[in-house]
Amino acid sequence: GQQLNQSPQSMFIQEGEDVSMNCTSSSIFNTWLWYKQDPGEGPVLLIALYKAGELTSNGRLTAQFGITRKDSFLNISASIPSDVGIYFCAGQLPMEKLTFGTGTRLTIIP
Amino acid sequence: NAGVTQTPKFRVLKTGQSMTLLCAQDMNHEYMYWYRQDPGMGLRLIHYSVGEGTTAKGEVPDGYNVSRLKKQNFLLGLESAAPSQTSVYFCASSYRGGVWNTEAFFGQGTRLTVV
């Protein structure tokens, strides 16, 4: 089946730093989604991307749908303590199920 | 608007016992999914459904069964629980996969321990 490789697997940063993570696929997707999971909670949607090349922001978060349709990037600017959690990418083709990445665990060092 | 509701939230089972996890969504979504998440790992798809009366296997279907008798409900059954099924289970739902409105919404999770 399709596989999404998400990197890095984990990040340790200081408050105020910018964060970048990405997701790559062996095949193309029509939709890319980015989710965040807080400890003990279910994943919550952050950003949805529907078009190759699309760049979308949600506050301090910015995500891009790669031109090749096989990758996507998420950037977080000026990180704050509540950014801690696991970030998942997900891809989907029309009429098919979602495929999730393995997650990036973000930790903020005091 | 409740969104996606999972019951129960916590459960402890003895090896060999059976149980059913219930997922209910009130958003009229066609697609519903069951995932498991083990410590430090991502989401692994167990089974999914693309509509009422249909189910399909995901990546890790063994030891689980599902049913989608009503559009709003997706049930996950463990026939004979094993310690390897100790995990956090998440249900999700989404509109039919198309260009628009494909976001999946997740429940709060069910933490299952098999002893």
Task: Describe, in plain words, how this protein is organized in 3D.
The complex is a heterodimer of chains A (110) and B (115). Chain A is mainly β and 110 residues long. Chain A has no helices and eleven strands. In chain A, the strands form two sheets. In chain A, strands 2, 4, 5, 9, 10 and 11 form a six-stranded mixed beta sheet that branches. In chain A, a hairpin with a 2-residue loop joins strand 6 (55-58) and strand 7 (61-65). The model of chain A has no long low-confidence stretch (mean pLDDT 91). Chain B has strands spanning 4-7, 10-13, 19-25, 31-37, 43-49, 56-57, 64-67, 73-78, 87-94, 105-106, 110-114. In chain B, strands 2, 4, 5, 6, 9, 10 and 11 form a seven-stranded mixed beta sheet that branches. In chain B, strands 1-3-8-7 form a four-stranded antiparallel beta sheet, with no helix packed on it. In chain B, strand 4 and strand 5 form a beta hairpin. The N and C termini of chain B lie far apart (36 Å).
Compact summary:
The complex is a heterodimer of chains A (110) and B (115). Chain A has 110 residues and is mainly β. Chain A has strands at 4-7, 10-14, 19-25, 31-37, 44-49, 55-58, 61-65, 71-76, 85-92, 99-100, 104-109.
Give the topology string of chain A: H per helix, E per strand: EEEEEEEEEEE
Structural class of chain B comes to mainly beta
Unreliable sequence segments of chain A: none
Percent of residues in helices of chain A comes to under 10%
Strand content of chain A: over 45%
Mean pLDDT of chain A: 91
Largest interchain contact: A-B, 28 and 30 residues
Biggest sheet record of chain A: 6 strands, mixed
Helix and strand content put the structural class of chain A at mainly beta
Count up the helices of chain B: 0
